[in-house]
Amino acid sequence: MPDVIVVGAGAAGCEAAVRLARSGADVLLLTTSLDTVYSAGRERVAIPMPEGTLGAELLEHLPVVEDGTVAAWEVHAQAKYLLEREERLHLMQSNVDEVLVNPALHVEGVATWEGLSYRSAAVALCLGPFLRSRLVSGATEENAGRPGEMAYDELAEDLVSHGFDFVPEEHGGGSGEVPAWQGTFLRFADGVVNEGRVVGISGLYAAGQVVLGAVSYEAAARDAHAMVNAILDDRI
User: Fold this and answer.
1) Strand segments (E) across the chain
2) 207: closest CA among 184, 230, 175?
3) Whole-angstrom Cα distance, residue 16 to residue 38?
4) DSSP state letter for 221
5) Nearest to 55 by CA among 228, 214, 217, 219
6) Closest by CA position to 58, among listed 42, 41, 70, 68
7) Domain boundaries, given as residue ranges, for the chain
8) Contacts with 177 (C-beta within 8 Å, 6 or more apart), sequence order
9) Residue 81 phi/psi, 5° resolution?
10) What digits encode the pLDDT tens for the residues 58-88?
11) Residue of 165, 156, 161 lying closest to 133 (CA atoms)
């Protein structure tokens, strides 16, 4: 049984999973698609990343062009390579639909669309802009956070059933070969998450855009590190 389950393998989820594993925790990192690990949702990623983050570590291995960016696909590929080599970290593709909570209001793990459950006493929600997300690009509408990246609709319903409040956020993207798009997603309402801890259910944590709204990679990474500190403090 893993010590911590991290749901979502964007910037915040990857940062959290790696830091937890390197701190001695056994980590299960679940993502809806292995093809979008550390995905930027755009063709180029600006540098630098904050010192001491996985993002900065990734960029050490990638070519930077004159405008100070690196190719997003190369960032993804390098991130997936490093995650799969990380001891104590298991990366898996699976769609989380439910957070399992016992009558004492403590986390017991997660349940997935595929019908499997994974047990752990700590769950970190790093869902990015995908909680009940909707996307419009031209005449096309998708239940997605970014083009081709599916939303966490069932998980949103489950979290609402636990009494958590959410607020809508807007974001958008598209450039070069990617058509312009606009979207909405849910983030936790102010006060629901306190220093990485989701108030009301022990063992449940959250970081990144699902807490802060549409923010940069740098902000998501810093928030993930603060959440990890809370998880490690609670385990002592």
Assistant:
1) 4-7, 27-31, 44-46, 69-71, 89-93, 96-101, 107-112, 117-119, 123-125, 134-137, 140-142, 144-146, 149-150, 166-173, 181-188, 193-194, 197-198, 204-206
2) 230
3) 12
4) H
5) 217
6) 70
7) 4-127+187-235
8) 43
9) -60, -45
10) 777 777 777 777 777 788 888 888 899 999 9
11) 156
* Three-point CA angle 59, 65, 66, nearest 5°: 130
In one letter, which amino acid is 113?
W
In the sheet that holds 181-188, the strands lie side by side as 140-142, 134-137, 181-188, 166-173
Given the candidates 3.30.420.40, 3.40.50.11060, 3.40.50.10710, 3.50.50.60, the CATH classification of the domain at 4-127+187-235 is 3.50.50.60
Q: Could you report the per-residue pLDDT of 115-165, keeping only the tens digit for each?
A: 999 999 999 999 999 999 998 877 778 887 777 788 899 999 999 999 999
Both tokens assigned to 74: 């190369």
